[in-house]
Amino acid sequence: MIWLDITNQPHVLFFRDFIRSHECFVTTRDFGGLTGLLDQNGIEYTVIGRHGGKDPKSKLIESSRRVSELAEFVSKHDVEYALAKHSVELARVAFGLGVPSIFILDNEHAEQQNRLTLPLVTSLITPAALDQQIIQSQGADSQRTHTFNGVCEATHLKGFKPDKSSVTELGEYVVVRPEPMTAAYFQKQSETQGLIDRLNRRGYKVVVLPRSGEKYQNAVHLEGVDSLNLIYHAKAFFGGGGTMNREAAILGVPAVSFYSQELLGVDRFLIKLGLMYHTTSLDFDVESLLAEKGFKKKAEGIRKTFDDPFEVIKEAAQEVT
Question: What confidence tier does 106 reach under pLDDT thresholds 50, 70, 90?
């Protein structure tokens, strides 16, 4: 039996096909509509613990409580190996119980989480674009690290079929995804409302995909929707985070990152390929970006060169079991 811990919404699409084709049990936490997304994808799960919010003390307390509860729950199962993407608690519980673990990491700047996990995992899998020196300084063992060409988000597109009819009533629109304000690694102020205001002044209808129920003025708020389909049919995507930025880029949608901290290696990779743009100023030329053509064809060609991270996971599983 394989134990998967899914702690954030993007992990659902990443692991969905793997869960359907393997004997697994899934744990998750109460956080930002995560259980609803698991339900939509027909994934059975057990909720253990919750997100601690922005306050460091609350994060520590909730994570510690979750480690204890997971230890009790997982110890009752015969676990072949544990598998997760960015789960602090899985790495610690698996290590404590003597269970081999495979960990997927694509954020070298999540220093707090990385220092708590990378020294403990049995096998680490990262995109080749990640800065390996940074994660080694955080505890990653180069001898136990496997890399692949591409980005994790490419797996989200498996089986994706665009459906224009589901977004017709929105008319023409752009999508905005706010910054990860509750993440421990994010320390800046939000620029989302200022961006929405600027896009409104330029005549664009803005659809926001909020993270935790937050509200913005002069925008349509959508939650619990097929975000890939929504992004695919947008005129452009503006993201203050990471995952949806990369989804938009590899879908071939004009994608602008307004992430205000140091960019991840995977984002620099897509920028270098010409699939994503980055700005730290809200005063950028939207019209010039939208005037460019051929995004989708270019993205499709580049996606074909990417490796499948689950082939690397398969090899890692053979090594640790």
Answer: very high
Pairwise CA distance, residues 35 & 48, whole Å: 11
Full domain range(s) for residue 34: 2-150+307-320
Secondary structure letter of residue 182 according to DSSP: T
- Residue found under tokens 């997971």: 70
Q: Quote the mean pLDDT of the chain.
A: 93
Is residue 28 packed enough to be buried (19+ CB in 10 Å), middle (13-18) or exposed (0-12)?
Answer: buried
List CB contacts of 68: < 8 A, sequence separation 6 or more: none
More confident residue, 232 or 282: 232
Which amino acid is present at 80? E
Q: Are 250 and 311 in a shared domain?
A: no
Strands 145-148 and 123-127: parallel
The number of residues making up the chain comes to 321
Contact by Cβ (8 Å): 155, 20? no
The domain that holds 145 is classified in CATH as 3.40.50.2000
Spatial neighbors of 208 by CB under 8 A, at least 6 apart, are 175, 176, 177, 178, 192, 196, 216, 219, 220, 221, 222
In the predicted structure, residue 96 carries a pLDDT above the cut 80: yes
Token couple for 92: 């610690």
Question: Any idea which of 24-28, 33-37, 38-42 has the lowest mean pLDDT?
Answer: 33-37
